[in-house]
Specification:
about 450 residues, alpha/beta, Rossmann fold, Helicase, Ruva Protein, domain 3, 4 domains, 16 strands, elongated, binds magnesium ion
Length: about 450
């Protein structure tokens, strides 16, 4: 996308020669008066202004002052005559980015323009990075070796090499944000911003301005122009977390930003292009939301182009010991404690527990254990772990009767129930999974009767 340059000069031949010079790398717009420059800035997205100082009507300095009252973003480069250095200094004080002496040198002009546009971009990125510094410095990696997580890695790799819109789904705490960050790290946008918008936590009435920015005076309290996250994410990735919470009235604006790659700031009339790549995440069932008319169907299809499902932890239990070790290390180092281990029975509890809060819950559990552990401790025993986790054990028959047959039947029942749940009630698949015939499964189901809930 070529940047838009506004040429403001009352000398037609200078405008024409500048336009010709810039034609290869930029889109240009020419006006002859300061008043027209302000009008153009209110109507079109402008990346830089080349502004002549001596003009009839509003002169360059007056125009500059008015530009800066409303427009913080565009680069402004003044064109002054050789002996007019004082004016140049005033211009810089008023917010011009640079100045060039007339008659200008072509190479110098091109270089000055390019350098200032680059500085502006970097400035925007730095501003974003500063606010996100703590997240950025904390480099997190995705731990896991199960077939399920390997599938996720394959999808991340495929998605990272294209510009497709990605929708990451999964239960709470499964690592959706982590997946989005990993995708960013592996993509060509890696050194560009990764901007997060959490649609569930930003107050509804601030969301539009957070996303798309606002103009000065757009509403009470809008004292300055503000850039939205979509604009800050330009050339990078914008990650919409909890997209199911985006109010319906903002969904059409987002759809347009996705389809046409343009948007307007709140209270603004200028159409701004965006190069950002859009990634979404949700732990809500968006199809259901579409049925209930709380989520636009067209938006759903537009964002669900490349789905990545992050499986719950209970479906990749082999990753649990790896994650336990990883978090133990992490928190022992963080809390400056000697690294210790969990005892085998403790690990059994961890592996057998269903982790409704997924990896976040596991991480919190380990952090708590490291916090309460004292220096004399070398291993973590089951008595230290949360009661809820200690109480679940698939081979815990303490509550069953004393007869072996009763215990075996109870185990059978639990395993069949789990298998049927895993395959949404599909008996052929459940039987295969359990290593018995479909007929065998039917017999057992008849025996257990109605008491078995899937
Ligand atoms: N595979 C993993 N390896 C290491 N840490 C992980 C893994 N998955 C998740 N985590 C950690 O678990 C926590 C929760 O992950 P994350 O915030 O990405 O989940 P989420 O799916 O976005 O959750 P929510 O739906 O609640 O927003 C984070 O601290 C994250 O670093
Ligand atoms: Mg999240």
């Amino acid at each position: 996308m070529k940047p838009n340059i506004l040429i403001v000069d009352d000398d037609e031949s200078i405008r024409a020669s500048l336009a010709l010079l810039l034609d290869e790398s930029y889109k240009t717009l020419e006006v002859s008066r300061g008043e027209d420059a302000l009008e153009a800035l209110n109507q079109t997205h402008i990346d830089a202004v080349l502004l002549d100082v001596k003009m009839n009507g509003l002169d360059g300095l007056e125009t500059l002052k008015l530009i800066r009252e409303h427009h913080e973003q565009p680069v402004v480069i003044m064109l002054t005559v050789l002996e007019d250095i004082k004016t140049a200094v005033t211009a810089i004080k008023l917010g011009a980015n640079d100045y060039l002496r007339k008659p200008y040198n072509k190479d110098e002009l091109l270089l000055t323009l390019e350098r200032n546009l680059q500085i502006k971009n970097e400035h925007n990125e730095i501003r974003y990075l500063k606010s996100e510094l703590d997240r950025v410095t904390e480099s997190k990696i995705i731990i896991g070796q199960s077939a399920e997580i390997k599938k996720v890695f394959t999808l991340i790799n495929q998605a990272s090499q294209s510009n497709t819109t990605v929708l990451i789904t999964g239960e709470t705490g499964t690592g959706k944000e982590l997946v989005a960050r990993e995708l960013h790290k592996r993509s060509p946008h890696a050194n560009k911003p990764f901007v997060i918008v959490n649609c569930a936590t930003i107050p509804r009435d601030l969301l539009e301005s957070e996303l798309f920015g606002h103009e000065k005076g757009a509403f009470t309290g809008a004292l300055k122009q503000k850039l939205g996250k979509v604009e800050i994410a330009n050339d990078g990735i914008i990650f919409f977390d909890e997209i199911g919470c985006l109010p319906i009235e903002l969904q059409s604006k987002l759809l347009r930003a996705l389809q046409e790659k343009t948007f307007e700031r709140v209270g603004g009339t200028v159409t701004i292009p965006t190069n950002a790549r859009f990634i979404f995440a949700t732990n809500e069932n968006l199809k259901q939301a579409v049925k209930q008319n709380t989520f636009r169907m067209d938006l759903y299809y537009r964002i669900n182009v490349f789905p990545i499902l992050v499986p719950p932890l209970r479906e990749r239990k082999e990753d649990i010991p790896l994650l336990v070790d990883y978090f133990l290390n992490k928190y022992c180092i963080e809390q400056r404690k000697t690294i210790f281990h969990v005892s085998p029975p403790t690990m059994d509890h961890f592996v057998n527990y269903s982790w409704p809060g997924n990896i976040r819950q596991l991480e919190n559990e380990i952090e708590k254990l490291v916090t309460i552990a004292n220096a004399a401790m070398t291993t973590i025993t089951p008595d230290l772990i949360s009661e809820e986790i200690r109480e679940t054990h698939s081979t815990d028959f303490s509550t069953e009767g004393g007869l072996l047959n009763d215990a075996l039947e109870s185990l059978e029942r639990k395993m069949i129930q789990k298998a049927l749940h895993k395959f949404n009630g599909n008996k052929t698949k459940a039987a295969q999974y359990l290593g018995i015939s479909r007929r065998g499964l039917h017999k057992k189901l008849d025996r257990f009767g109605e008491s078995l809930e899937v």
